[in-house]
């Protein structure tokens, strides 16, 4: 295999972070930042129609900006939440990696950290999704997915859809976290984030079990989740750290035990994000040692799994987006390394990196645009701009979903030549189940390599 050692983890962290710039809605990508992937602005989103599921029946919402979620052009609050959280953790882990001018984005040269600039592009959009009563809409979406066209060529009507407990709580946690991180960047901005977070919390307490499912005329990503207790926990943690409020601290202390046995975070299960914050942020809840022990115990289990594996890898669930699970696992292992200095953790993290960079059954380096790693590189990712721009090379810096033994797209004609779960990856545009990209898959990879660059 070609990647025995981790090459330039700091560069990988930045390449992965730069992918968010390429996902910007409502803004043209200029050649000086985007190179051959420059393109006109798509989706102004200044006149988004209210769908009845939003609780409103007429009028329009101005909701410009933010990142396209994945290979499609819609914008989903739930998935934005975990993505922003992982990126802000990457910033906190290694801020200097993303210093001003490090990412070559329009805000490079403004004197502020470029990763915080990029994440602010998403936070500014998220703020538009909060209703006047504190509740938060679910998504900005077309009724069905558009064809494989460039952003500026998708002219379908966009809708504000849904208003639920998980969208409010993920928004709440994200805004509370941002209020902590952006205090030195822009104090007034941070204060606004906090006031929005507290309004979303109050709305959620009054509306604790509103679950989202797609109305019959909406066929795009659902991100439905009937278990809201983990979202309450994460939001309470972030509000506790941001405010020191007794209500939040009591909530966190009461519910911590049910999440102490850690597994990796995912969009429907965000409690681990709260545990990670408890382990590293100011210890306002008196749970820092216990949270750290949760992270360390997770890493020890991963080491035990790796010792049983010929590849030296922790267990992988080869489900949809398996590479994000690998990246999240690697990030938690490196968090444990920070807490202990135990070299066994570093060794497993190296195996995780090698796996993502090509030392796996498929031979693919799973990050687009990386030269010289792995035997093969993804070219035909399920990503509308990459499919429609007429440029052979895909937009760089994306972690593809990766091997998926469930073959969720087989019913639409995608063929997996090698059906073993670990080999179930096909580099064709049609394979949304193994070859799509997504903001919540890239984010843990940014965090993993930020931690790896500065363990
Ligand atoms: Ca900057
Ligand atoms: Ca949940």
Write a concise keyword list for the protein shown above:
455 residues; mainly alpha; Glycosyltransferase; 5-stranded mixed sheet; disordered N terminus; binds calcium ion
Name the ligand types.
calcium ion
How many helices? The count is 15
Order of helices and strands: HHEEEHHEEHHHHHHHHHHH
Report the top-level CATH class.
Answer: Mainly Alpha
Assign the CATH topology.
Glycosyltransferase
Q: Please, how many domains? A: 1
Q: What is the beta-strand fraction? A: under 5%
User: Quaternary state, please?
Assistant: single chain
Shape: globular
CATH architecture: Alpha/alpha barrel
SSE order and pairing:
Layout: H1 9-22, H2 31-34, E1 48-50, E2 60-61, E3 75-76, H3 77-93, H4 114-128, E4 137-141, E5 159-163, H5 165-181, H6 187-206, H7 229-243, H8 246-255, H9 271-280, H10 288-307, H11 322-340, H12 343-356, H13 384-388, H14 432-435, H15 439-453
Parallel strand pairs: 1-5
Antiparallel strand pairs: 1-2, 3-4, 4-5
Helix pairs in contact: 1-15, 3-4, 3-5, 3-15, 5-6, 5-7, 6-7, 7-8, 7-9, 9-10, 10-11, 11-12, 11-15
The protein binds calcium ion (CA) (2 copies).
One calcium ion (CA) binds next to helix 7.
Tell me what you see in this structure.
The protein has one domain: Glycosyltransferase, CATH 1.50.10. It is mainly α. It has 15 helices and 5 strands. Helix 3 packs antiparallel against helix 4. The chain has helices spanning 9-22, 31-34, 77-93, 114-128, 165-181, 187-206, 229-243, 246-255, 271-280, 288-307, 322-340, 343-356, 384-388, 432-435, 439-453; strands at 48-50, 60-61, 75-76, 137-141, 159-163. The longest helix has 20 residues, at 187-206. The protein has a 5-stranded mixed sheet with strand order 2-1-5-4-3. One calcium ion binds at residues 225, 227-228, 230-231, 268-269.
